[in-house]
Amino acid sequence: MANHKSALKRDRQSKARRLRNKARKTRVKNLVKSVQAAIAERKPEEARQLLRLAQKTLDKTAAKGTIHWRAAARKVARLSRKVHALVSAG
């Protein structure tokens, strides 16, 4: 356990950041799953709306530094490709 005042503060900050990052990552995972579920159920309009929300959340999460910006871009690209394939097919 930390003994110095600065180390105690750093420990508090780390715990707060960890919880914040965990919440953001969980939100991203849930949104990605919801888009994939809409694709699986063949609901193009719902998938398109959820994709928009997922993209916004992924971009915000990447901007905050919780996930890498390239990881966010990769997830958006893959989801977009699937949604556009569904929309053009149906």
TrEMBL record:
<keyword id="KW-0694">RNA-binding</keyword>
<feature type="compositionally biased region" description="Basic residues">
    <location>
        <begin position="15"/>
        <end position="25"/>
    </location>
</feature>
<keyword id="KW-0699">rRNA-binding</keyword>
<dbReference type="Pfam" id="PF01649">
    <property type="entry name" value="Ribosomal_S20p"/>
</dbReference>
<dbReference type="GO" id="GO:0015935">
    <property type="term" value="C:small ribosomal subunit"/>
</dbReference>
<dbReference type="InterPro" id="IPR036510">
    <property type="entry name" value="Ribosomal_bS20_sf"/>
</dbReference>
<dbReference type="GO" id="GO:0070181">
    <property type="term" value="F:small ribosomal subunit rRNA binding"/>
</dbReference>
<feature type="region of interest" description="Disordered">
    <location>
        <begin position="1"/>
        <end position="25"/>
    </location>
</feature>
<keyword id="KW-0687">Ribonucleoprotein</keyword>
<dbReference type="InterPro" id="IPR002583">
    <property type="entry name" value="Ribosomal_bS20"/>
</dbReference>
<protein>
    <recommendedName>
        <fullName>Small ribosomal subunit protein bS20</fullName>
    </recommendedName>
</protein>
<dbReference type="GO" id="GO:0003735">
    <property type="term" value="F:structural constituent of ribosome"/>
</dbReference>
<keyword id="KW-0689">Ribosomal protein</keyword>
<comment type="function">
    <text>Binds directly to 16S ribosomal RNA.</text>
</comment>
<dbReference type="GO" id="GO:0006412">
    <property type="term" value="P:translation"/>
</dbReference>
<comment type="similarity">
    <text>Belongs to the bacterial ribosomal protein bS20 family.</text>
</comment>
